């Protein structure tokens, strides 16, 4: 059973900082494994996190000159005067594309096909943007990250690691703040957390773990409110329903997709913590991406119970926006995307997809999909394939890919590599096995991507802040790195 209290290493019980001021001291990063941990006689009191009022932030774009070489380890020299070198022509061009800070413009409602590669080249990162994660046996790798919607101006990043701990990092500051203040953490699971997602109001968070459960957390109290138990293998992804915040979907290595609804009646076990409810799925799609096998069924055996093979794993599932009853899913066995009509499924019926994508891969052998995402407008569907291509589909008329993104050096060699799309849907970023982050313009798939080199191992999960000026990347080198727009002021 996962711990329901905030896990704090070396935290004095009298500290009562709000969420915006809470980070974790990094003085323990160099601690020898043989050194005994600090013994605390009694559990510290739960720390309440103050949810700040939502302050919508308008995206701000810079108009720096194009650079052929991008610095990813040090910041460029900044100009002293605000908007120095910004011509009136550039200002008019930017206003017509994205509107003004007050009121916008009539043209801003239309998607204009104009390259903004200059903005992509402004992302940079320094050594002060690197954050490490300390586990019970030393440094651990972060597996998933997600920016908040409104808390701390949308700059509160939740990060989950391979030991099941979730940490909250205030991205408004660099890592020097961790020498003074304590990072908020809580133990969410007793196994690795592979995915997590904030609720639309930022008051709750759902985590998906290798312990075969998903959990709903009260972010303010760091307290588990619900346990979702039905999968028989690790849960790989979780996604909210954008039209109904009470529902979400999980996809697992057991080959099953489950839909959950907290409005149903839960059950509390006598041995469970107070306030923690157990839920069953309201709908299910079983063996969603299992290979068709025309051979005879194997003779029944009285040996160990059957477990799904890794090839039948469902790597992603999400609700579509043009029809709320449709669900898209991807699997590890091939590059096929399937659509499911939730009105035609139940926990007892065999599931049949209503649409299938046409495999547009050029490779001779089938490749799986490591990540599946939908843009914010619900008009473009992206699939990250292990054949080293990102395919774009039309969510309304699913068929062959409309276009694809790649690079000679881009490598999607594992199912841990994820993608993220910018809040304005203009840019897509992906991790890679070659230790780099790749960034494309969604309207210019044939152009070479911007390659950001900083990590020392495979880059996995990514998340983009809501103001467009920052994103985060996780890596197997046990670090998380922030990438910020290098503003000319």
TrEMBL record:
A molecular function (GO) term: protein-macromolecule adaptor activity
Pathways involved: Protein modification; protein ubiquitination
Q: Where is the signal peptide?
A: none
Q: Which sections of the protein are WD repeats? A: 186-220, 228-264, 419-441, 452-489
**What GO cellular component entries does it have?**
nucleus
> Does the record carry Endoplasmic reticulum as a key word?
no
| Pfam families for this protein | WD40
Q: Name one GO biological process term.
A: proteasome-mediated ubiquitin-dependent protein catabolic process
Which residue stretches belong to region Disordered? Answer: 279-311
Q: Which UniProt keywords apply?
A: Repeat, Ubl conjugation pathway, WD repeat
What protein family does this chain belong to?
A: Belongs to the WD repeat cdt2 family.
According to UniProt, the name of this protein is 7315_t:CDS:1
Task: Give the organism, scientific name.
Answer: Cetraspora pellucida
């Amino acid at each position: 059973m996962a711990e329901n209290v905030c896990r704090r290493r070396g935290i004095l019980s009298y500290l009562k900082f709000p969420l915006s001021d809470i980070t974790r001291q990094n003085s323990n990063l160099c601690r020898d494994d043989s050194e005994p941990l600090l013994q605390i006689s009694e559990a510290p009191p739960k720390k309440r996190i103050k949810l700040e009022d939502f302050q919508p932030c308008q995206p701000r774009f810079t108009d720096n000159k194009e650079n052929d070489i991008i610095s990813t380890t040090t910041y460029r020299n900044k100009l002293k005067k605000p908007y120095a070198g910004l011509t009136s022509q550039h200002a008019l061009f930017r206003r017509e594309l994205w509107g003004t800070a007050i009121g916008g413009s009539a043209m801003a409602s239309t998607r204009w096909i104009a390259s903004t590669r200059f903005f992509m080249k402004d992302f940079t990162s320094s050594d002060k943007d690197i954050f490490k994660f300390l586990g019970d046996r030393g440094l651990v790798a972060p597996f998933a990250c997600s920016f908040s919607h409104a808390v701390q101006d949308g700059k509160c990043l939740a990060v989950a690691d391979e030991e099941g701990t979730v940490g909250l990092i205030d991205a408004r500051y660099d890592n020097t703040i961790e020498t003074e203040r304590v990072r908020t953490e809580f133990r969410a699971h007793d196994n690795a957390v592979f995915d997590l997602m904030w609720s639309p109001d930022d008051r709750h968070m759902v985590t998906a773990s290798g312990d075969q459960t998903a959990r709903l957390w009260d972010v303010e109290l760091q307290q588990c409110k619900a346990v979702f138990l039905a999968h028989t293998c690790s849960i790989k992804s979780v996604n909210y329903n954008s039209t109904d915040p009470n529902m979400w979907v999980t996809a697992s290595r057991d080959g099953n997709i489950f839909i959950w609804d907290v409005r149903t009646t839960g059950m509390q076990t006598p041995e469970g913590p107070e306030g923690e409810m157990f839920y069953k799925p309201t709908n299910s799609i079983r063996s969603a991406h299992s290979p068709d096998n025309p051979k005879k069924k194997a003779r029944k055996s009285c040996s160990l119970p059957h477990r799904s093979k890794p090839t039948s794993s469902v790597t992603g599932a999400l609700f579509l926006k043009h029809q709320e009853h449709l669900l898209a899913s991807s699997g590890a066995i091939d590059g096929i995307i399937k659509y499911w009509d939730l009105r035609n499924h139940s926990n007892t019926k065999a599931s049949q997809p209503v649409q299938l994508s046409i495999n547009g891969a050029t490779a001779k052998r089938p490749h799986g999909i490591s990540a599946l995402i939908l843009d914010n407008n619900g008009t473009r569907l992206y699939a990250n394939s292990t054949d080293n291509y990102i395919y774009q589909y039309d969510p309304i008329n699913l068929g062959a890919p409309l276009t694809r993104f790649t690079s000679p050096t881009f490598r999607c060699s594992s199912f841990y590599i994820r993608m993220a799309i910018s809040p304005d849907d203009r840019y897509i970023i992906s991790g890679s096995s070659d230790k780099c982050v790749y960034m494309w313009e969604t309207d210019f798939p044939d152009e070479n991507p911007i390659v950001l080199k900083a990590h020392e191992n495979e880059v996995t999960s990514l998340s983009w802040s809501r103001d467009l000026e920052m994103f985060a990347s996780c890596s197997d080198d046990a670090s998380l790195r922030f990438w910020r727009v290098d503003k000319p002021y």
